[in-house]
Amino acid sequence: MKDQNLYNYVLQHADSSLILGQRLAEWCGHGPILEQDIAMSNISLDLIGQCRMWYQYAAEIQDEGKSEDEIVAFRDAWDYRNVQLVEQPNGDFAQTIFRQFLFDTYSVHFYEMLINSKDERLAAIAGKSHKEALYHVKWSGDWVIRLGDGTEESHDRMKAAIDELWSYSGELTKPNETETKAFEEGYGVNLAALKEKRDAKIREILTEATLEVPESTYTHEGGKDGRHTEHLGYILSDLQFLQRAYPGQEW
Amino acid sequence: MKDQNLYNYVLQHADSSLILGQRLAEWCGHGPILEQDIAMSNISLDLIGQCRMWYQYAAEIQDEGKSEDEIVAFRDAWDYRNVQLVEQPNGDFAQTIFRQFLFDTYSVHFYEMLINSKDERLAAIAGKSHKEALYHVKWSGDWVIRLGDGTEESHDRMKAAIDELWSYSGELTKPNETETKAFEEGYGVNLAALKEKRDAKIREILTEATLEVPESTYTHEGGKDGRHTEHLGYILSDLQFLQRAYPGQEW
Amino acid sequence: MDIKSLEDRFNEKIDKDIRIEPKDWMPENYRKTLIRQISQHAHSEIVGMLPEANWITRAPSLRRKAAALAKVQDEAGHGLYLYSACETLGIERDQLLQDLHSGKAKYSSIFNYPTLTWADMGAIGWLVDGAAIMNQVPLCRASYGPYARAMVRVCKEESFHQRQGFEIMLTLCRGSEEQKKMAQDALNRWWWPSLMMFGPQDKDSTHTEQSMRWGIKRFTNDELRQKFVDVSKPQADLLGITIPDKDLKWNEERGHYDFGEINWEEFFNVIKGNGPCNKQRVDARRNAYDNGAWVREAAAAHAEKKAKKQQAA
Amino acid sequence: MDIKSLEDRFNEKIDKDIRIEPKDWMPENYRKTLIRQISQHAHSEIVGMLPEANWITRAPSLRRKAAALAKVQDEAGHGLYLYSACETLGIERDQLLQDLHSGKAKYSSIFNYPTLTWADMGAIGWLVDGAAIMNQVPLCRASYGPYARAMVRVCKEESFHQRQGFEIMLTLCRGSEEQKKMAQDALNRWWWPSLMMFGPQDKDSTHTEQSMRWGIKRFTNDELRQKFVDVSKPQADLLGITIPDKDLKWNEERGHYDFGEINWEEFFNVIKGNGPCNKQRVDARRNAYDNGAWVREAAAAHAEKKAKKQQAA
């Protein structure tokens, strides 16, 4: 392994994109409006595209000749480094939207800042992904507003979604050791600075949506170091089934 | 393999018991009444106990030194021979009850008749399982009556459950080649005779439950020969995960 | 102008292969037939998302996952074009969806079959999309303009999907014994339903003659079916898997493959509702629609609020 | 008899270790304290089903699947005994459940931690049930009869569960490197929460003194915790895995193991609601209850119909 910390840093972003992409893909064919079914597939596709860039880089850093798919298929949950937010169930459309919004407000700033990474590969991934993240946060933000400031029912559902997911928001901007080191070494992002921008964005959109920003600052954490919620295991059992059932094949 | 037809016959009953037991186990901790949570665990336990006897016998017939767990864990859906009924989702309590009732009205007569099998092992499995099946059909039948002749809502839910599941009922009593041969060779059950008894029981209970016996005789089929619904794959990806992720271990 | 003259003019356009456009006069039966045909096609795209969506979360590689997702998304897009084409005939998408959910409107019966292994993603692309293209390419010249233009876009993407499906099959057929068995199994299950996609035999087909005259159908069911068999047999040979029809053989005299009798009882049974997944498919679409009602209401309510604010400002 | 005499008689029974029975007079506070303690215990059994139920469908063998199912079923049974014991104090199960769902009633915080691998089924049996038994065995001699008798049944089954859990750990520890890692990881995650199961330190414990006097608590939190550590350390050694506490070492003088400082901030945080699974657990129970409302109503309605018919006959 060339650089364990870089590998972990790359893997945690790869895993978050993959798992959120996987969750969104569950909507495919079941969206509330055909146009939004397409939008969710679009974002899922972007996320899967992003995770592939991340995994390919991870495989190079790891330098054991593994493919992206081997990295995906042959790790159990404890070796996954995604944030806990992205493994939360789709719930209703409000919950999916709010999960996406919490992620997008992070990722749009993350990629914006990562463009300045001294690691060229990271900067390149960021450049491509940032454009996509801009579209994602526009989409999810618009829906937060539409649902928050829509009908009484949609407002209540948004409130329930916030209640359900708020405590998974903080992990995104709370640096673990890997991220602290990545920032110190000049290839990672300054999460404290990111947090300020993101908090402002969240506040702006929730206010426009006539929703309140919760006061609680308690946050679940550990996903980035392999400690997950009970949901991830089930996600992986589907995600990895074919590779595990028929290992070593081309597909 | 000593006897391929006997093996298939045994396997199809093993698989049906396992998958229904697995489905019932999903209720564990989530039942509508604590006492019924316990009852469902009980039936699930009986079914898993039954499938173990079947699988152990299957392993002996196969004579390749496989354990019951290897037979369970390392077959993909197309090699599973359970009826399609048992892989149907739990749905609400009415749906779970009606699925159980359709299965129990079959299995109680199946085991009753299998006691006379010329194959001593089958007769022994039947003797033990018949007592359990008597309790199961009493439980599910009582609940069909209670829900059918309960409130308007419960009546409607039972009707919806019948609508959902009726077309999966017929496969149980429609012999496939394996079953026809098993009957001809004297170790299997006469499904035509079983069907008569079962139909009468279904009619009796549904009538008491103020529910109508549907007229449609169309039935899904193929499960007993490895053609399933889209549900089975997902069941197996959880059921087999650990064995596939960490093959060849003791647990 | 009186009806007679309008009809003459309409027929003249049809004869000269001039496109009918939404604002043009058209016979009521033409309009109704088109709505039935286009909406049935749109519904098929939307319902057709479900069997393939079933394997997206379990796709065996990230590349395949992305391709599968993109493909199903394309189908949603096709549904959109076609619903829009239908709306030019004076009917709302919402009404069309309600007809789908109530069972009044039909969709292609092929989607009432389940996807049981990953190979089904290959077989559907290869055979089902292949059959669809054969049905659809002639419709790029359909007499109704919006329909024809929608079909041009649809066909372009479908043939990409078809190649992709074939490539999935090819990969499996070059893979392990189990993978090859998976491919053969998928061919076994999808072959006959694919042949049924072309509809009943010409002698039993009710709408064909009028539709051909109107230029919204260009070849008969049996012609297209024959063409499909002729194209598919060499492809199966290339893959090294066997079409499950012992009567399939080259007929030198006809210059076509002969093939066995289709199980029309199964065909009509599935259309009647007794297919493996009919209830499941319609329930899935109805649930998506019903569970989305509050979302559509919220979007409408918000748009209204916004419009009012802009008016006030 | 006046209150004073009743109280004297009650206290006399307590002093003589004579059981208090439902029909006996008892101080209101005794009754309330018992309801709180027994219902909390009942709720813990019911909520405690959830983390283990999470691995039943994924159990690695049929034998383990059956054992896991039977174990969780036993917990439901314990819940039943304890709710019944509580009902003898004049409160309905339905009220108790509502208090659980509203957050008014508590349950053991340990069940707010997730089960992340199969090894957690071992660790819960070994450590969590082990700690529970240490808490519960003395309660078989609790002053309130129905409670004491319920505890006798509970403890018998719990110690079976505890051995089963240890045996799961032992199998893993004798297995592959990955399995051993799984066992160690589970110990790492469950050790400290298990120590917290004995409640706050004696100096911070509010109810202890009165409860000890009433004979519904027999040892202090710290005494039981020490006992648990003393028993568990050699077991971990036997398994060949390491308790995640660098301060854990034998103190020859005390005749006990010394151990590190518990993270009481985490303890109080989880009790306050900020544990990994608090919301998920209570939601799961509330949903089961709410979704089951129509079933309970139907059962009641049918029972009434049946009773009327029998009366009429």
How does this model look, in words?
Chains A, B: This is Ring-1,2-phenylacetyl-CoA epoxidase subunit PaaC. Chains A, B: It holds the Pfam family PaaA_PaaC. Chains A, B: One of its GO terms (biological process) is phenylacetate catabolic process. Chains A, B: InterPro entries: Aromatic_CoA_ox/epox, Ferritin-like, Ferritin-like_SF, PaaA_PaaC, PaaC. Chain A is mainly α and 251 residues long. Chain A has one domain (4-245): Up-down Bundle (Ferritin), CATH 1.20.1260.10. Helices cover 65% and strands 0% of the residues of chain A. The radius of gyration of chain A is 18 Å and the shape is globular. The two termini of chain A are 28 Å apart. Chain C is globular and about 70 Å long. Chain C has 13 helices and 2 strands, in the order H-H-H-H-H-H-H-H-H-H-E-E-H-H-H. In chain C, strands 1-2 form a two-stranded antiparallel ribbon. Chain C has a single domain (3-244), classed as Ferritin (Up-down Bundle). Chain C is 67% helix and 2% strand. Chain C starts with a helix and ends with a helix. Classes of the chains: A mainly alpha (251), C mainly alpha (313).
Provide the CATH superfamily of chain C: Ferritin, core subunit, four-helix bundle
**The CATH top-level class label of chain A:** Mainly Alpha
Number of discrete helical segments of chain A: 10
Q: Note the total helix count of chain C.
A: 13
- Give the terminus-to-terminus CA distance of chain A: 28 Å
The CATH architecture of chain A can be named as Up-down Bundle
The best one-word shape of chain C is globular
**Secondary-structure element string of chain C:** HHHHHHHHHHEEHHH
Largest interface: A-C, 47 and 49 residues
Largest β-sheet summary of chain C: 2 strands, antiparallel
**What is the arithmetic mean of pLDDT of chain C?**
95
Distance between the termini of chain C: 48 Å
